[in-house]
């Protein structure tokens, strides 16, 4: 009751305010350097001298850039017709207030019930110290049409009273999924900005009832296809910002019904050239940002060609765009198709009149060009690496059931496209180097029972996806070099018991993952170059008694760890470049008499290792570049190992050249 009585007094006081209060508020604003707009005037007034004499009514005040204390908002409490108020963001972050929360001071405006627009300017700090307690203090301002709270500490519950809002900016606030519930009653909301908040799929689903929305900014949210589906009913949308969202072509396709859409921001999303189909289905589209998405230049050029009025924002790679191949009838025969391949800059192999091999690597072919290849029943080998082919093209490839070897390196394709390859049950070799494949597609590959070799190097494959490859019974060779594997990949690696050749170069695996590697008993070749394990982790490799080739380049291998390597008696090729070994450590390898190749570039060994090296009678290549071996030592090695090629340079052991 006391609160209600106070509100009545505040409102009554405001209604009784006269011309003196209006002029005082206007003069105060102008003296601070702000701007005012009066009833009946066209533009804003900046100078005190331009303030007209006589009675006036203030309808707009702009205090952005002014040095204002929150309690001074009391000067505006008597305004009778104020409709717009722009406040400086720093008003809530006073240097001398000791971090005090001054949000409730905005309650001095609670009686200005004519207010329709209330906004805060940006702050040079990361956050404006204004929270929901301030919103609660101005709950009587139910006539607000626009509220700008960018950078504030608002979480959302305090927004509930403002059901007449048409524009709401919550960018960079602390609003989360629970806070979004307060927007449910805002049926007139037309512009909503939720970028860089804590809202996820769950919160986005709560926007489904805001059917009046015309502009929606969701940039930087943890948003996936699952949340995107909730927007399908917002048929009045004209502008949509999804930049940074983890969405795919399938998710965007669910928005095909938004036929009023004029602008869409897909910057840094997971959409590919396949998304162009959805974009072409929006008749009012005028602007689309596809920068740093998975779309290629070919897809963007198609959009520009079919919809010239659409401004497609895109950043092409530094490499010059390649010319598109000439047009060809998809029903063309093998000989004609081979001629087309060569005209496009590729290579074609015909055998008995049948096209069996095609390489279009580094040509300008794109998704639309693959239909003619899909009809080549005799095609066994195909390379589309470094082309403009995207995920739509991979779905076309899925019809080429006779393929045995397929190279798709350096393409903007991810798991959605890779999953389509599951239909190529005759594949024996597959290369997806430097793509966007993370591994979700592997679960769909159970039918690739003939696959023997898989190269995923340079693609962002994750730990949890590796175990799915165990379903490929014929898999013998696997490269996961420079993927996103960590020390948690051990269990998945341990399940790949059919492997003979495994490349883990440049991954973040450590000792724990090596335990899993040590369980692949049939390994013959293993690369652990540039990995993060220690000497202790090498003990897990002891069960690999059949290992013939091992690379430990630039690892933390020392004399303590080499004793574990020395137990791998079947080794024939060993690369220890940049290892922290000494002559004593190298001597531990004397039992490896079957060594044929030994790399010791930049290893701290010298003439004291001559006896050890001379004992490797099977050596055919020895790299002692950048070691401390003397010219006399090199000569002695040459005599002891006459059939061995020795890489050596006397000057290479100079301090300024070693470890460079």
Concise overview:
This protein is 20% helix and 13% strand.
Structure description:
The protein has 660 residues and is α/β, with parallel strands linked by helices. The chain contains 19 helices and 26 strands. The strands form two sheets. The protein has a 14-stranded mixed β-sheet, covered by helices on one side. Helix 8 links the parallel strand 10 (263-265) and strand 11. It starts with a helix and ends in a 13-residue tail after the last strand.
Q: Specify the CATH homologous superfamily of the domain at 1-184.
A: Ribonuclease Inhibitor
Distance between the termini: 80 Å
Helix content: 10-25%
Strands of the widest sheet, in order across it, are: 13-14-15-16-17-18-19-20-21-22-23-24-25-26
Write the CATH architecture name of the domain at 1-184. Answer: Alpha-Beta Horseshoe
User: Main sheet?
Assistant: 14 strands, mixed
> What is the general shape?
elongated
What is the C-level CATH assignment of the domain at 1-184?
A: Alpha Beta
Q: If you average the pLDDT, what whole number results?
A: 94
């Amino acid at each position: 009751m006391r609160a209600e009585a106070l509100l009545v007094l505040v409102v009554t006081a405001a209604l009784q305010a006269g011309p003196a209060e209006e002029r005082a508020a206007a003069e105060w604003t102008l003296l601070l350097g702000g701007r005012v707009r009066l009833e009946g005037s066209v533009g804003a007034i900046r100078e005190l001298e331009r303030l007209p004499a006589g009675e006036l009514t203030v309808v707009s005040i702009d205090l952005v850039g002014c040095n204002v204390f929150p309690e001074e908002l009391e000067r505006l409490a008597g305004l009778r017709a104020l409709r717009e108020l722009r406040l400086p963001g720093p008003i809530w972050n006073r240097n001398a207030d000791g971090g005090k929360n001054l949000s409730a001071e905005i309650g001095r405006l609670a009686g200005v019930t004519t207010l329709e627009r209330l906004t805060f300017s940006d702050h040079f700090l990361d956050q404006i110290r204004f929270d929901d307690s301030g919103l609660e203090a101005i709950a009587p301002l139910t006539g607000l049409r626009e509220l700008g709270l960018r950078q504030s500490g608002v979480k959302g519950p305090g927004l509930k009273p403002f059901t007449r809002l048409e524009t709401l900016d919550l960018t960079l606030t602390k609003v989360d999924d629970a806070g979004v519930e307060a927007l449910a009653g805002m049926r007139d909301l037309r512009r909503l900005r939720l970028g860089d908040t804590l809202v996820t799929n769950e919160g986005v689903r709560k926007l489904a009832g805001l059917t009046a929305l015309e502009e929606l900014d969701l940039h930087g949210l943890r948003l996936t296809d699952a949340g995107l589906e909730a927007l399908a009913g917002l048929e009045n949308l004209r502008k949509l910002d999804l930049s940074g969202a983890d969405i795919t072509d399938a998710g965007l396709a669910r928005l095909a019904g938004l036929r009023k859409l004029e602008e869409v921001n897909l910057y840094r999303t997971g959409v590919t050239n396949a998304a162009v189909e959805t974009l072409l289905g929006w008749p009012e589209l005028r602007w689309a940002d596809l920068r740093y998405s998975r779309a290629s230049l070919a897809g963007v050029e198609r959009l520009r060609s079919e919809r010239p009025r659409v401004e497609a924002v895109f950043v092409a790679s530094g490499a010059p765009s390649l010319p598109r191949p000439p047009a060809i009838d998809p029903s063309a025969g093998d000989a004609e198709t081979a001629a087309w391949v060569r005209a496009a800059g590729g290579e074609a192999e015909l055998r008995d009149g049948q096209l069996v091999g095609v390489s279009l690597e580094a040509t300008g072919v794109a998704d639309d060009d693959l239909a003619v290849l899909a009809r080549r029943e005799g095609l066994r080998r195909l390379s589309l690496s470094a082309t403009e082919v995207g995920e739509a093209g991979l779905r076309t490839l899925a019809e080429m059931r006779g393929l045995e070897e397929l190279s798709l390196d350096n393409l903007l394709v991810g798991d959605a496209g890779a999953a389509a390859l599951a239909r190529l049950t005759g594949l024996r070799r597959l290369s997806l180097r430097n793509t966007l494949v993370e591994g979700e597609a592997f679960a769909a590959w159970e039918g690739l029972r003939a696959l023997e070799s898989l190269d995923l190097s340079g693609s962002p494959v994750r730990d949890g996806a590796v175990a799915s490859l165990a379903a490929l019974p014929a898999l013998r060779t696997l490269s996961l070099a420079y993927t996103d594997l960590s020390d948690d990949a051990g269990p998945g690696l341990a399940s790949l018991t059919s492997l003979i050749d495994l490349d883990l170069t440049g991954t973040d695996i450590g000792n724990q993952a090596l335990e899993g590697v040590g369980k692949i008993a049939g390994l013959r070749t293993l690369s652990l170059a540039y990995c993060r394990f220690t000497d202790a982790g090498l003990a897990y490799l002891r069960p690999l008694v059949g290992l013939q080739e091992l690379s430990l380049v630039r690892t933390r291998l020392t004399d303590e760890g080499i004793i574990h390597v020395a137990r791998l008696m079947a080794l024939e090729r060993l690369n220890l470049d940049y290892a922290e070994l000494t002559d004593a450590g190298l001597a531990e390898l004397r039992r490896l008499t079957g060594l044929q190749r030994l790399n010791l570039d930049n290893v701290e060994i010298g003439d004291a290792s001559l006896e050890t090296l001379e004992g490797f009678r099977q050596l055919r290549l020895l790299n002692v570049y950048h070691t401390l071996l003397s010219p006399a030592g090199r000569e002695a090695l040459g005599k002891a190992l006459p059939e061995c090629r020795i890489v050596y340079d006397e000057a290479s052991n100079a301090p300024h050249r070693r470890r460079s």
